[in-house]
Amino acid sequence: MNTTEFLAIASAICPDKEALVFEGQRITYAQLAERVNRLTHVLQKLGVGKGDRVAFLNVNCPHATEAYFATAKAGAIYVPLNFRARADELQYMIDTAGVKVLFVGERYVPLVAQVRQRLPSVQGFISMEGKGPGCQEYEALLAESNAEDESSDIADDDTTIIMYTAGTTGFPKGVMLTHNSFGVYMTNNVTPADPDTVEKNILTVPLYHIAGMQAQLAAIYGGRTIVMQRQFDAAEWMRLVEQERVDRAMMVPTMLKQLLEHPDFKQRDLSSLKVITYGAAPMPLEVIKRAVKALPHARFINAFGQTESASTITMLGPEDHVLEGTAEEIDKKLRHLSSIGKPMDDVVIQIMDEEGNFLPTGEVGEIVAMGPRLMSGYWKDAEKTQATIVDGWLHTGDLGYTDEDGYIYLAGRAKDMIKRGGEMVSPEEVENVLQSHPAIDEAAIIGVPDDTWGEVVRAIAVKKAHSRVTAQELIEFCHQRLASYKKPESVVFVDELPRNPMGKVLKRLLREQYGKDYKLKA
Question: What is the pTM of this model?
Fold first, then answer.
């Protein structure tokens, strides 16, 4: 099934249902389909055909939905760009992708102008939300275009998206995802559009990220209404949920934490929320426990995946978030709550050692996945593709282990593991202990060089407001709960941890700033 069928089916079954709600605009499925048809013809007139690349640079907005489906209908490949990227990163992504047409939001026109002369492949610039110098105007082009439905010959295994990952070093890699990458997931996991069902999703996760794209396509396939936010703002998010009676939300841990800590949280009526899916970064156990208690009407789902896997590959379901039963049952559920759940039905997952052997229960190794939804490779990078997909197994770069019940637990990124005197230390294990301390808001663990041990453990911690906890108290707290070699040798207190837009802690920056002075002591 190709993704253009998601919109075709939804607009045929429920044409009058609202597809998008955005800053006062209300666009039905019939209107969305018509605008997509018009934009498809615009792209074709600009010379866009099968396999050509079309890029999009803006915050979340209805244009992103229209641009994706129009690009797909033209048989072309959509390239969503990170609107937080630097000018040189944008140039790299646009140039390496060989983009033919670039959609650019009003606030990013000056940024594009900086590199425009170094983008030889781009033949058309289209400005949204108004006019831009050297750009054609989006709405004017649509008004002059034809609304007839016209699709290209599209195969399920054709590439539909090149999604650039935020690399920890160097420039990002372009992940090639096919129509089938999304089609298989939707047909197996999402209820199709139904004219008698009204369901609303709030979408605030960036649409250049796989979590945002998956959430958008799932909503269109399901004929749901997308209530879209340009960028996450806790107060506005709560207002929209209350006003629109939103049913579903996709969130990252930092968003959920901001909601719970917002002064208006208890005054807002969020009772319409039935499902909250979270993922994209590790969820602190204390945060999800608070959320489950504070939002008892909602079912929680932990979805784990990465750009290379196109969508979710493991899931911790709603039943795992219900903390009821005997003391022994609750204790087991609390352990499971710190996991990423179990593999999805259409994905095979194993824990593998460095020699390619599958590991038994309890042993830490790399999480590898196999299935029909995985990326077809990295754009123009056969070497990295061959290093990442080996014998059909996608090497995620995440370390983990399984328990006796089949739940999978993260143990950090392979590159983040700390080797202390021959012993391996999982940063995530130490972070979980630190974040259970009542005086600590959040923490990250890095390794620093040491003359005796090779590497030792250092904690970068954020105290709760008014806390007076000392570094030595935290070290002793960890010593009581972990093997001696795993405890931090030093603690650095900071006001906040550096994170990317999806809430992942940028360990690279922490290592650059705090990982070189091995003489620093607690």
Answer: 0.85
